[in-house]
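[job 0412] stage=fold_complex status=start
inputs:
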Amino acid sequence: MTDLEPKHTKKLEFNLLFGLVILFFLCAAALLGLIWTPYDPKFQNFAVQLQGPSWAHWLGTDNLGRDTLSRLLLGSSTSVLVGVISVGIGSSLGLLLGLISGWLGGIIDDIVMRILDALSAFPTILLALLIAVVLRPNIWSAMLAVGISSIPTFARLTRAGVIATKNLDFIDSARALGARDARLVFRHVLPNIASALIVQATFAFSVAILAEAALSYLGLGIQPPAPSWGVMLRDAQTFIYQSSWATIFPGLTIAITVLGLNLLGDGLRDRLDPKN
Amino acid sequence: MTLAFLLRRVLTAFITVFLASSMVFVALLAVPGDPVQLILGLNYDPNQYAVLQKQLGLDHPPLERFAIWLAGIPKGDLGKSISLSKDVGTLIWDRLPITLPLVGLSSLLALLIALPAGILAARNKGSLLDVLVVTTTQLGLAIPSFWLGIMFVLIFAVNLGWLPANGWSNWSDDPLKTARYLIMPVVTLALGQAAGLVRMVRSSVLETQNQDYVRTARSKGLLESVVIRKHILRNAAINILTLVGIQFGQLLAGGIVVESVFSIPGLGLLGLNAVRFGDYPLVQGVVLVIAIMIVVINLIVDVLYGVLDPRIRYD
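[job 0412] stage=fold_complex status=done
writing structure:
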């Protein structure tokens, strides 16, 4: 096995590095998309409908003659926004529920766990259907659906971490020294599960970007004319017999982004989690 | 496995279904505005208002409505659709012969791909084959199923013209035609699921083959094929079964996306159109039925778990 180890570390570094590069480009594109794009992402130029890549339009144009690169850039801002907010919703509520459930135990633990079980019976898309019919489909309904559906994972992870640490000797000695519950949780328990939560948040971010694209594709998320990678694919599919270019670049962008974030998660996990 | 465990597990499943139904009901209490007025528009006949209010069951206070709705679920009475003016239960029932074969065939195909790929990769850990399998699964996890579907349409329908780009034909009309409509959706759904499954199969085989009893079996001089079949796979199967259970929920959800890509009029498209028309009783029904299916599958998997692995004690 020893001869495998250097190779393994190299692969590990590759994951982390590749993931970080993609994350950097994603954030840069999201910021750039907000302040500058080659063309106005909503400007319709019917002289250049459904074109392939050219010097004027690097990634071609869509059915309304809008510049694909500009729309991808602005779409990345949407993706990052949805990702950050939904991971924020999922991780904060999940953390809170996990802490309560794991620390207090007993009947409260039972109740929280049953609620999480019930929540787990709804995949993101089901939640999105339900929330979209109540709020009408928009960016908020998508973020809520993606965020809520990630609560159980964060909560279970936190709960398991709390249960594993709360009976350890160092917690008992801190308690004996007069530390209160809040101090015990924030100073002693949370730092112990922080790295697992960071890894989970990375994966949740990647899941959120994939889910936003899918929901917007289905008409349950971002609504046209606002550019979202999912909406772009929906439009492009309608005109697939006229031009295939518009179906290719948004999909490639989603795939590369998600691949990068997944590898970043793998890399972080290998780095931060001593058990792996 | 004891009877007590079985009963307790069934009871938990009931509680989960009850809580899930409550969530679906409570979510819809938050519909802003008056749903009856929303449907009728601004200029409506007061008589019509009363009729529709009664039809939607909105003439009762929320708690009573909840009780009525809950009581209807076991009877398959999920209310009436607004946009299609039919029973929600009937509408859903009619779509099952479309969605269930799609999901069932996809999970079968996903297993047929994932089992050999995962086992081969694990048996040859670190080899070129393993690296290839693991890399492919990373790609499979990153490629969105709806884009994969669109690419299949581009290749096999637009460019090669071998298969229809989208649509559906009833099983009773011409099963062969239906099969042609099903090929691309099933493969699309299966490939996405297989990517996740391969990784899980691989790691559970890897984990099992390092166990002491596997070493013992080898040291007894057993044939390697017997060790793999009886000691490694049999035990890894227990983990894999759980994964298949978890995946089933994702498949049902993924089915909604794939039905949309290929315009297949199944449960998913029914739910999506219901959202478009603000038909909330229908959305409520579709969401609840899929959630119940997921809870039931998980229950079955848990029970099978106990059957497959007599070592597992539940108390």
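[job 0412] summary: Chain A touches chain B through 46 residues (CB under 8 Å).
[job 0412] exit 0
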